[in-house]
């Protein structure tokens, strides 16, 4: 089969060379469609179920919501495990499926189970599935701020409520239309509400209950349609708009009559525009703001989506009121561009180095050019395969390519062809076309099997990587797939394109001669070789000692899963004591950001405090995620300072601020750790049991042991106690004496 394919490639050499145009065309098209990211997405297949439960304590949320939801999911096909979290007013269940599970099929199964348990959950409680995104989903963040001299239509300056209104009604709907965006998550500011505050004395005077007031609002706030009527051939739609629209409308709602006098809501209550009790806030550079996060759909191209969101945000700016600015604060495109620039630089330098070596050692310009052409052709074919298999271009997948391995087979074939053609022309003999083609065929056939065998051995080395599962599989599968596709492409080209190119371009006078580099190297190597053979026992003994010494050195080396990617920015996890109020946390956060902003290397700093509108990352008010965006290295006072040194300086300065504990990490790294294991650290230890007090004691003992491990940093126990609560415990006997029940209380 190989001989037949070789013969076909040489006989139909021009046809095979024309196939290069198809390879280039398809490769260029695939490059435009190739997903690009900084690192592989190692998030497991998971679905978050968030349930908002206003007024529910963590214990009640666990007992009445989290437990029923979690147990209802047991038995789902391909379910790996579940984990849950219960906070004040929120229940979150994370459902993790086995690798390879279709995320949409998994969500459909969960939706069916959630529909079946609605009768078990408290009235008004509706579990919702989180957005279809991953750890790489938070690709773009922006803040909404107003300039100091900007005013609203009523002449008042913009406050947090007005900025949140602009975010929810102007910016968010437009950004949600961008292809590849699955969710625009908002945090910060206040949701505007109409507040009706009853006066208990007036309610008692008129004999009106709270239930009567609430019922009056409900029955007087409705729109109804009544079909249509026809009159004189004209159709008229019938509708009754009864929805309350203003504070005055609410105040004029009649509750009841008192001595034939109608009692309105404004007679027994104060009415005004107020704020919703919020669960989260956002700050930037020491000032409170509104923060929006664009989340990317699973499988989308993060570089393209982030760029499109940025362009759309610029267009949205024209529709914002004067003085209101939507400013991008975190954009994944920066990191992706840096990563791809690093890969492109390394690949280009590697390719140029290989080409220079080929030109130097082969001693024939045309032969070196044919061999070097395998590199771009293999890259284009690899990109086509990556698009077809869904492998993204990132540091892991493209960084593992070795052009020396790719051209290995082609070098052997071309070098032997040059040698055979030169031998056939010795003595001034000239070959006819048929003789030259036969010589090329013979020369290729002589070395094609060992050449293919060598490439196949290298390819087989990567096959065991495909047996990895979980996080390891997601991390290394793209690398192995890319290398295997590149090697297979080079193998096919060595079998077809290279012999055809040799038959076409290596014509005329062919001379085989050693390059100056090879000759010089031989002159140095020969005496060294003879010397080594003369003192062979000494050389072998020294080599043995060297191997033993290296083995000992290997035992002293540290190890890690993969080197950490320097994302260029810093994520800072700030924690305060449990029970810290949201407004107090905002004040402490503003002081913290002002201290961080004082570093000349820092461009901007912003933070999320508590839980956002969509609880993809549920945090209590005493916890804040800080994002420290650094300036370009050339703008630092000391460009030679490392990021680790800056983190140490920053940690030292921030420790002076009372009431805060810190964990330093990076944005993507932090999000990966959260979604994969449910904790933000690189290593999490979970302790299971029935006695919470004993669990806390055991966890503290583990913490003491961990702190003694060299290299351990930022170790802590997750807070599970200490949240202050104000409990109103009904006295049922007293309630019965007054004819009341718990609901009325």
Keywords:
four-stranded antiparallel beta sheet, Multidrug efflux transporter AcrB TolC docking domain, DN and DC subdomains, 26 helices, 745 residues, alpha+beta, 19 strands, 6 domains, 18% strand, Multidrug efflux transporter AcrB transmembrane fold
Instruction: Specify the structural class.
Output: alpha+beta
Share of β-strand residues: 15-25%
Q: Can you tell me the CATH class of the largest domain?
A: Mainly Alpha
Rounded to the nearest angstrom, the distance between the terminal CA atoms is 88 Å
Mean pLDDT: 85
Give the CATH topology of the largest domain: Multidrug efflux transporter AcrB transmembrane fold
Number of E-state strands:
19
Unreliable residue runs = none
C-alpha geometry: elongated
Helix content, binned percent: 40-55%
Which CATH architecture of the largest domain?
Up-down Bundle
The rounded Rg comes to 35 Å
CATH homologous superfamily descriptor of the largest domain: Multidrug efflux transporter AcrB transmembrane domain
